[in-house]
Structures are given as structure tokens and as C-alpha cells.
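Input (Glutamate-1-semialdehyde 2,1-aminomutase):
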Amino acid sequence: MHDTVAIDPARLQALLQRERAHFGRHHPRSVALSAQAQQHYVFGVPLHWMRDWPTPASLFVQHARGADLTCVDGHGYADFCLGDTGAMFGHSPEPVAAAVAEQACRGLTCMLPDERSAQVGQWLAERFGLPRWQLAMTASDANRFVIRWARAITARPYLVVFDGCYHGAVDDTLVDRDPAGAGSVRRPSVLGQVHAHHAYTRVVPFNDLEALHDALADGQVAAVLAEPALTNFGLVPPQPGFWDTAQALCQRHGTLLVLDETHTLSTGVGGWARTHGLTPDLWVAGKAVAGGVPCAVYGCTDEVAARMQHAKDTAPPGHSGIGTTLTANALALAALHAALHHLHTPATYAAMQASADALEHGLRQRLQARTLPWTLTRLGARMELQFTPATPRNADDVRRHLQPALEESLHLTLLNRGVVLTPFHGMMLCSPATGTSHVQRLLQAFDDWLDALL
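Output:
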């Protein structure tokens, strides 16, 4: 098998033009709503990320349930994006929808603990393996709060992240590795930066234990904040034994290990760490943790909790800035309670994994039949088609094989055939509601794309 496949650039551009025109013809209401929204929203959408899809106009959603979307033009879609993981358990899972509907009539927010809070705390400990917890509204918030706590209890200024990581809209993590050396540099795409976050965040290549050792050696790093596998810069899994050694390095240098499992919850019940027997000092999850209702959680060991309480008790009185008014509101608690009881279960994950098994098998068959030198990388119910000859080890491996036009053609061709992928890369996620018909629809659309492309 060759390391690359020759794709005629003219054929690729013709395919893109044809699919863009197809979208415009078949989505007149979305096109009209896009034009109307341009008058009142900056960038034409309520969140500017929503314009990152490859469609010539935004696709407006009318209804979403389970693994299905319906757009305003009446077209149905098999959804493998699932709100970029927010709807990993399916759109509006029944137990969560019922809990939210009931709680909406009983009070939305009081800035007081809901009667289910104690039960939720117990279930968080049981599901994810850490004894002490706090809530946030989003994973971005939770990561910000954890970074603050880590610096407070260690009295150290520095943070380590991995090149290609994703931890939401956290300024401390939006920095780049200096390609000319071992330092970090300001990320040019980040707008409005005043503070030199790159001066206090060290960026090292993923799966590089030597680089991690060097970053921790001076004893000034408060925390390593990491995804167990890179998930938003191409799916990059850890090498065997990487995390055991990395944790030992953190312990040797007095650095806290923080795992952000917002995307790796797809691995299995309890996420990647619980599935693989790793116990970090702190653990973060958002997006799907409460079934898609805005909510995030962060947990810690008893030792870290004691240090947090000591830091807070010995600080001067006043607002700490670690939390927001709507955090742990009654609506989020109701959703989290239902999700922990009904969704974070072996039966749920068995259904997700079964669909992922079928999808992986079908895609691999097609790659092998055409001897295509592309890789399918999988993490539980999540997988990604990557235009690389082998599973990447770090972000540089992904960068070397980026093909934006090819990726765009995949997304747009599948969308026009009723299949939605995450817009940022070739990621596919299976929910408990994903069934044989959804998988077959994706595989047929994938066949159509390969036929048109090759």
C-alpha cells in the first residue's frame, strides 16, 4: 500500500462545486434563514462556530431526537456529530428530558443545593472514581477553575499542556509550541490577548515522555492538564504505558495530573481513566455528562480536596472568582441526576460500542477494498478517518497529512446524502440511539463519496 493516494485536484474541486450547488437547491429555507440571520447576528449565527460547517449556508435544525436530525427543509439526517459530543447519549434522551421538564415547573435556579445534590455527589464518586466534587456550567469553566485551584494549592505558576490539545475556551491552553525550540509562543489566531499566557504555559508533544520530563524538571509546574487522547486535532491515542509513566513523572516532581475527559467519555463507563485504571489528582468532564444540558463537573482526591479547603480557609475573605451564579442550578442537577442514573451505565455503553463496531468494520472493509492508505483511529464509541498512513503519535503527525479540501468534500458529500459528521475533522460518534440503519446510511454515503472522488 502506498503512503499517499493520488487525487485529481480538478476532480476534487468539481466535486465540491457540485455538492455546494446541490445543497443550495435542496435547502431553500436554510438559505433564506441564513440570509435573514445575517442582519442580526455577528457572523450570521448565534455562535460563530456554527459557520464552521462546509455548507454554503448554515443548516438550520427543526428537530433532533436520538441519533436523528431534521432540518427546516424537512430532510432527515443520521447524526454522527451529536452536537460535537454534547449529545453523545443521543438528542434529548428520555430520562433527562423528563427530569428537565419536571424540574422546569419546580424552579430553575436558587443558588442553594437541590435536594438531589447528596445523591449526585455519591453517584459522581461511584461512576468516575474520585471522592470529592464541584460543578460548573461548562468544561471550559471547570478547566479554568481547576487551573486556579492547582496554582493556589501548589504555589506554582506554570501549567503544562500537550501540543494539539483541546480544553475549550481557556486562555491558558490556547498557546502553541515553538517549532524552533522547546518554548511556547502566542497563538496568532487567538484574538484580544493582553496577558502573555504562553509565558506560563509549557507545551510539549503528546506521547513524548522525555519532553514532559524536561518541562517538569524545575519543580515549578502546578499541573499537567491533558486529554487522555488528543481528540480535536485528529484523534491521537496514547502509546502503551504512556500515562502510567507520565503520572509517575508528575508525582516525582510534585505536579498535579488533571485529566479532561469531556471528549473521552466515549471510551467506556467512567471515561478513559476509569476504564484503564488510572486515578488522576483531578478530573474534568462537560458536554455530555448531564445528557446535553449545560453542566460540567470536576472531581479530586481527598488529599487535593483538603489542600483546596485549606487554601480557601486561609485566604482573605471575599469573592474567589471560582464559580458562577448559575453553577449547579436546579435544572442542571436534575439533568445530571437522571444522566448518572440512566445513561452512564454498562447497557448504554454496550449499545454505543456495538454500533461503533459495525461502523468500524464497514469503513475498514472499504479502505482495504480500494487499498487506500488512510487510517481509522478509534476510542470507544468515537472514531476518526484520518488521511494518514498510520495512527498519529502527536500533533505534528496530523499536521503533515492535513488535506482541508478533501475533508470538506467528505463532509459536504455525506451531508447531502443525509449524514452529519463533526465539521472540524473526520470524527464519527455513535450514541445509544445509533442503529443499523444509521450505520448503513453512512457507509452508503461513504461509498458515494469514494466513487465520486476516485
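Residues 346-369 form the longest helix (24 residues).
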